Amino acid sequence: MQRARIKLWGRDPKQIDELAREIRKIAEKVGVAVRGPIPLPTKRLRITCIRTPCGDGMHRGGPTNWDHWELRIHKRIIDVAANPRVLKQITRLPIPQGVKMEIELTD
Length: 107
Hints:
Distance between the termini: 6 Å
Order of helices and strands: EHEEHE
CATH class: Alpha Beta
Largest sheet: 4 strands, antiparallel
CATH topology: Alpha-Beta Plaits
CATH architecture: 2-Layer Sandwich
Strand order of the largest sheet: 2-3-1-4
Number of domains: 1
Radius of gyration: 20 Å
């Protein structure tokens, strides 16, 4: 039987979990098999830059001379049986800004 693998990713884990909960609720209401949401490891993007605007000097100082920035990308996977009725309802869901969704059909 075909299944649809839905990948969700974004910066806010609450929005991703809420969207995953809605997808699961739709699948259970129709009565198709559903697995997930399965949390994947969080990707952490880190940038360290010097604070001085001119860029020269103050390299030998302590940790107070540097700014540390981090962006976390949270991911979830949901497997749903590929029922056309379910997929139609899932594609009509309002997706919050900052959340990406990808649907892949597999055997």
